[in-house]
Structure formats: structure tokens, C-alpha cells
Amino acid sequence: MRVALAGFLHETNTFARNPADLCAFHQGGGYIPLTEGPALIDAGADVNLGISGALRVGAECSWEMVPILWAGAIPSAHVTEDAFETITARIISGLRDAGPLDGVFLDLHGAMVTSHLDDGEGELAARVREAVGPDVPIAAALDLHGNISRHLVDTVDVLTGFRTYPHVDMAETGARAARLLDEIMRSGKRYARAYRQLPFMVPISLQSTTMEPAASLYADIATQDAQGVCASLFMGFPAADIPDCGPVAIAYAPSQVEADRAVTAIANAYEDAEDAFDGPIYSAADGVAKAMQLLSSGASAPIVLADTQDNPGAGGAATTTGMLRALVDADAQDAALGLLVDPTSVQLAFDAGEGARVHMSLGGHPDFPNDQPFETDVIVERLVTEKLHAAGPYYGGSWLDLSPAACLRIGGVRVVVTSKIAQLADREMFRFVGIEPEKQAILVVKSSTHFRADFDPIAGATLICLAPGPMAFSPADLPFTRLRAGLRLSPNGPAFAA
Questions:
Q1: HSE of 386 in the Cβ direction (CA atoms, 13 Å)?
Q2: Do the bridges between strand 398-400 and strand 388-390 make them parallel or antiparallel, or are there none, so unpaired?
Q3: Positive or negative, the Cα torsion across 23, 453, 233, 226?
């Protein structure tokens, strides 16, 4: 079987400030940088990405693989028209030049919004379909947070989404999509499909599949594989002001009756779990105070605080200072925060040198009047120019280029300050500047959930904290104007009315 492989990933926060231009895809921001042609085989191997699982299955099934292009950028505001059209054109050109194909594998996200399109993946899939024709099957691997349109479902032959959050199964999902593609190519039979939009959104910090109710919801979905049904629950990415924003259930089966039955089961279980999507939430100051109280009561260190509203994995900028101020104000000791993206402060640290005391204006976000740069004296403890190897379950062995970077100390608080952005979801993102996360009393991570994959094994407790930031914890706090009418903005929350 001769199979083309391509990928184009972006999770778009339409309320964020900075768009994803072509440079963002060349840089990657935690993904592998934009890669074309045969180089994709090596770049995509042995990391936790959908393309990696597809390459593994392709080798096992003796496909003649035709690697086209893979590109991904860290979540942000809209993908620019230039970036979308340039990358899409290169994918389509590669497909047209590939010669006869038996199938196409696509590694996508599902929540891409561009400056000129609401449904980036739907448009990309439509152009791929036009390029290869109606008879060539197309399979896609997608993120659990995809805002999946009926147009995308109608265009590809089969798609499947992650079943874990933190997304430790990205490669596994790519492998599952590739095996489904192989079955379609060899049998010549297409699956029946069913699609249903679901009635309420859930804050991403409450969606973790390491906790209930999501743990049981996704465990039930996985059991359907043994029945010959491939089902997916897409929780949706809630920071997207488009009509298709929100959760959906999708199923593929040998018959329409089986597909419809599977989607109904997912929808019923999701609605029955509405009351269970809940949990304690803390302000920045209360979160730090709670962490210190837990430690004084004998809880194991470290206590991990999630700075969820400045999560770069959802469109945050990794610049806000609310959690840092709370740590310093409480005179927290043996505390560390990461990542704070501030290239100017990094350069000042390099100019001063290790061991120097320097006055700095750290971070700050222009959209929040109470989040001015944090004026303080710091000790420059460590300067770094190397990449780091993020070997934890989420990044899965990826090499991240965040340098130049510095470890700055303010009293008992250490801050990882970098020149480039990525979600802090791996312990190595502390270690590479000399901070041993296991030896800290308090760790603040600019992440919502992905950090749990590598930090839960060492955490005495994990607290979700709400310092001001660009990624609102609850979708109900976002200024939507274009959602589908009746979609509830949170569990048991208000319904959107146009």
C-alpha cells in the first residue's frame, strides 16, 4: 500500500492576542519544527505525536510511505492566512506530485481557526480530498480538544481522537488511525459514521482523564474497540468563538445502527456526568496559603499549583505575574515557578552574569491592568544556552529549544525565565536551569492539565489557581458572540443566546 502522510496542527484561542504566523510553525513551540519530505521519517520517530504512531504502523504493515509535510505551532490566536495557505499549498502540491496513492494519513488537531476560516481542518481536508479524488481513503488522528465540524467528518473516511488528558496517547492515537486506514485500504469497505454535538462545555482544568468523571467516560469509549466500533469523545477547545465550538461524540462502525448506538451511549454518559465536573479552585494568594498550610500539616512536598489562566497550551502568553507575586508576598521558601517568557530579562541576566544581583521588571501582560511587570531585585543563579530533552510522558522525548534561559532567585522563590514559549509539562523544564523539582516545597506550573503526566507522581497535592491571565478558567467568562444557540457554557451553567 502506498500512503501519503502529512500533519498540520494548531489549537486556536480566538480571544488571544498573538497570531500563529509561518515562523511559529517553523519554530514548533514544543512540537517538532516544520519538516518536509523524507526528513519527516526521522523527525517524527520516537516522539509522542500522531505522526509517530502512523510511521510505526506504516512500517509494520509494509506501506510504501510518502512523507509530505508536518507542521505544528503552540496554541495562540488565529493562524494567519499566509501561514495556512502556504502550508496547505505545500501539502497539496506534495500530494499531487506523489503519484498514485492507496491512502492518506493526516495528523491534525481539530481546533484550528484561521484569520479567514472558521474550520481550518475542514478546509484542509476538503482540499486533500479534491487532490486525491473520492476513491482514496483518508484517515485522521485528532486532539481530544478538537472542535469537530460535520464538514470534516463528512470529508474524511475515518477519524479518531486522543483518549487521555494529559495527552500521553498522541502516538497511540496516530497508530489507531493508521490501522483503521490500513483496514479500509485492504478491505475496500468504508465505515458507517455517526456524529452528535453535545450540550455543555467543561473547563479544561476539570477534563483530566486522571480524574473522574472523565476517567470513566474515556475508559468506556475504549471498550468499544473490541466490538469493532471506533468511538471518540471530543471535549472541544472552549476558547474559540465559532459555531462549531464545543464537545461532540463520533463513532465509526460496520453498520449505521451500531454507529448510532455508540454515539448515543457516549452522549448519555456525558450528560449524566454533568454534575461531577467540579472541583476546588483557588485564587493566587489562597492557593499559595493552602499549599503552605498543607506542608505545615505534614503533606508531602512538592505541592503543585497550576497557573491555569496563563497556560501556553491554551493560548496563554506565559508572562503573567500573579502567581509569582503571591509566592513572594507569602515569603514562600523552596518554591519554583516556570516558565516565564521574558527575553529582555534573560538578556539582562546574561549581561550581568551568574551570581550577580540585578534589578528587573519581570513579565507582565498588557491586557490586564493589575498585571504590570514585577519590579524586583533578583539573583542570577544559572544561565543556559542548550536545548532540553523533555523525556516525560507528555512531550515523549522531544527536544525543546527555549534558550537562552535563566534561573532567577527572589528570596526563597526561583523562576525559570526563557526566551521562547512552551507549556511547562515536563520536570526537565525545571532541571535544565538547575532546579530539582522533587526537592522543592512548592512548584507553580503554567499549565492546566498536561503537567499532571510528569508531576502527579511526585506531587503531595495539586491545586488549580486563578491568577489573572488570557485563558479564562470557565468558558462562561469568555465574551462569545457566535456559538450555536443553547450550548451551555459550563456544567449546569448558562446557555448561549445569540
A1: 10
A2: antiparallel
A3: positive
489 cis-preceded (ω within 30 degrees of 0): no
pTM of the model: 0.93
Which band of pLDDT confidence, cut at 50, 70 and 90, is reported for residue 447?
very high
* CB-CB contact of 226 with 244 (8 Å): no
What share of the chain in percent tops pLDDT 70? 100
Q: What is the DSSP letter of 62?
A: T
Best CA proximity match to 448, nearest among 115, 28, 11: 11
The pairing of strands 374-384 and 405-410 is antiparallel
**Cell numbers placing 487:** 450550548
Q: Which residue, among 374, 29, 352, 313, has the nearest Cα to 145 in the 3D structure?
A: 313
The secondary structure element, H or E, covering residue 416 is: strand 413-418
Q: Is the peptide bond before 404 cis (omega within 30 degrees of 0)?
A: yes
**In sequence order, what are the beta bridge partners of 36?**
69
First-to-last CA distance in the chain?
49
Counting beta carbons within 10 angstroms of the beta carbon of residue 366, is it exposed (0 to 12), middle (13 to 18) or buried (19 or more)? exposed
Q: Which residue has the cell 546574561?
A: 350
Partners of 230 in the β-ladder: 252
Task: Please state the separation of Cα 454 from the chain's center in Å.
Answer: 15
Instruction: Please tell me the chain's helix, strand, coil percentages from 3-state DSSP, rounded to the nearest 5.
Output: 35, 25, 45
Distance between CA 309 and CA 282 in Å, rounded?
12
SS3 37: coil
Q: What's the CA gap between 290 and 322, in Å, rounded?
A: 16
Q: Answer whether 115's CB lies under 8 Å from 10's CB.
A: no
Nearest of 349, 469, 347 to residue 414 by alpha carbon: 349
Helix spans in 61-199 (H):
81-96, 120-132, 150-155, 170-187
Q: What is the pLDDT of residues 359-416, one digit of tens each?
A: 999 999 998 888 999 999 999 999 999 999 999 999 999 999 999 999 999 999 999 9
CA distance 386 to 407: 14
CA distance 159 to 489: 26
User: Cell 486533500 belongs to which residue?
Assistant: 128
Sign of CA dihedral 13, 14, 17, 22: positive
CA dist 85 and 101 (Å) reads: 23
Ordered alpha helix ranges (H), 321-437: 322-329, 343-352, 428-431
Whole-Å CA distances, 290 to 284, 437, 438: 10, 19, 19
